[in-house]
């Protein structure tokens, strides 16, 4: 990534992004950071027409998008594997989730948003109906760069909102692929807009007063900052899906092997880069030695390799050297605190 320095504290503003494959270090994608205000203006201009379009037409549009993803599923899975480092088998499951989200969202909209008559006093009429919010920013993560932002974008589009989608600066190529799929599916110009860039571009986007909401998936640190930023703005929708420090508990069980398999799967799928991944193991005293021994035996047999290697790996590398260094520092801190 290249950029410039802004102000006395030397805050780096990224102007050019380069995405490299975690497994090989090869350059995968190169592009310029975008203009958040211009993308919000595009989405605002497109919103009245999109919101006024019949629901059936909006559903037809996202179904065309699903069909396009289905027709290019191998290409998208390969791109996800290359840009994230995850095994190709796991990337394929992510693409399947992208496609399935359309039917799930159509059903959910029908179940949750029908106009309903409400109890009211005599000679009065009360009804509940739903309207789109307007222009929504979707901030995507790097661990599931297609599935998770797609999970925000599809329901928002069905409901009549327009989108400014900022992918993680670590997975810009997958983000670009998704938006191209929307555009080539016949969605009107400006309905889905891509905004590439780093944290400074994200801050410019969320600071835009013409946004009607922010749908975020990412780190707890950024989510907390967004929560503070929008705490006094009840007029704007804010959805935050953040990482956690998740325990997995092994208590009364005679099947130590199956329990250990579940522990290893939870901890190491996606190289541990899941908000749902187990971070801590809590074990009943009488099971401790057997569970820890079996978890270690299984973990030692895991295949860790490049995404397209054979035999297929269970997991690949983490997303970049910064994340790898952070994991190493955490390991050393645990060992120095008495870990073994």
Plain-language structure description:
The structure is a single chain. The protein has helices at 36-52, 55-71, 73-84, 88-112, 147-158, 172-183, 199-206, 220-229, 256-268, 288-300, 321-336, and strands spanning 2-6, 11-20, 27-32, 116-118, 126-128, 135-139, 162-166, 192-194, 213-218, 237-242, 246-250, 278-283. It is an alpha/beta fold and 340 residues long. The protein has two domains: 10-110 and 131-242, Aldehyde Dehydrogenase, Chain A, domain 1 (3-Layer(aba) Sandwich); 246-336, Aldehyde Dehydrogenase, Chain A, domain 2 (3-Layer(aba) Sandwich). The chain has a five-stranded parallel sheet, sandwiched between helices. A three-stranded antiparallel sheet has the order 1-2-3. The longest helix has 25 residues, at 88-112.
Main sheet: strand order = 8-7-6-9-10
CATH homology-level superfamily of the largest domain = Aldehyde Dehydrogenase, Chain A, domain 1
Q: Which architecture of the largest domain does the CATH hierarchy give at level 2?
A: 3-Layer(aba) Sandwich
Oligomer: single chain
End-to-end Cα distance:
38 Å
Low-confidence stretches: 1-12
* Total number of distinct structural domains: 2
CATH class of the largest domain: Alpha Beta
Percent of residues in β-strands: 15-25%
Estimated structural class: alpha/beta
Spatial shape: globular
CATH topology of the largest domain: Aldehyde Dehydrogenase, Chain A, domain 1
In total, the number of strands is 12
Give the helix level as a range of percent: 40-55%
**How many H/I helical runs?**
11
Q: For the residues shown, what is the average pLDDT?
A: 93
* SSE sequence, one letter per element: EEEHHHHEEEHEHEHEHEEHEHH
Q: Characterize the biggest β-sheet.
A: 5 strands, parallel
Organism: hydrothermal vent metagenome
GO molecular function: succinylglutamate-semialdehyde dehydrogenase activity
Protein name: Succinylglutamic semialdehyde dehydrogenase
EC number: 1.2.1.71
